[in-house]
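Render this sequence as a predicted structure.
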Amino acid sequence: MSLRKTIRIEIHKLKELPPLSGSTQDILIAVNNPDVRVDELCHVLEESPPLVARLLSLANSAYFGYPGMVNSIQHAIIRVLGLNIVKSLTIGILLSDALDIENCPLFDNQRFWFTSVSTANLSQKFSSLITENETIEPAAAYSSGLLCNIGLLALVHKFPEAMNMVFNEVNSTERQVNAVLKENFDLDQYESGAWLAQRWNLPQSIATVIAHNKNDEYDGPYSANAKLVGICSGISETVYSKPEIELNGVNRFEELSIPCDQAREVLHDFQNRIDELHDLASALSVNQ
């Protein structure tokens, strides 16, 4: 059996992981329900106090800038985060907490979450500027941006020693993680992330964007969202490594009919909020 097939089988087994609590499956069903009401979601979320505590911590972070204390999940949804962001963050937290990263010391969890939340926020902001061709719902852009690298967690969970060697090569050569994974495993974090999304019954749109966000030749369903997330992911990675450099990639947004002056404005605001995004990532990177 090939290594690639072995990896795929192991990733498919992730659905059999024991949940963080007895309510995890109910929570995933609720957040994937497009018609769920706020009161219904609150009731389900409150069955997991650790999850509620994480969400309240995020709602009280400087990034969201709420001028007061958020002390209930209903308050967080209605006045600060919004229903769609709570859904996305809940999925991200549940998936990440179900995956063990402790046996891979070179995996940088802070970096993972910084690039995830940065990609999500950039994707959401830029999605509202797209007025031609395929429009993108801001909520869909946020969700797929937040989860675009979730496959890294799956690979680290199942193959910690092999992934430690991958990160060692990345750190010593400054090559991209997906390039090293392709060379060694004949897959990357995007393919494994798409498999994981499908196994956890996430929307097909999210799985598709995860799979193709770095594939410039992809021209299928959700191609505009995939391109947007890919561009924003690249910017997030660059900013994490070199926050002092001038942001690049402005011209690429013209491929999505976003004028360069509007792209620069969004990126300028993003650059001014990097410290707040680091704080947000720190709150997410603490596993319960």
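Summary. The chain has a mean pLDDT of 87. The chain has 16 helices and no strands.
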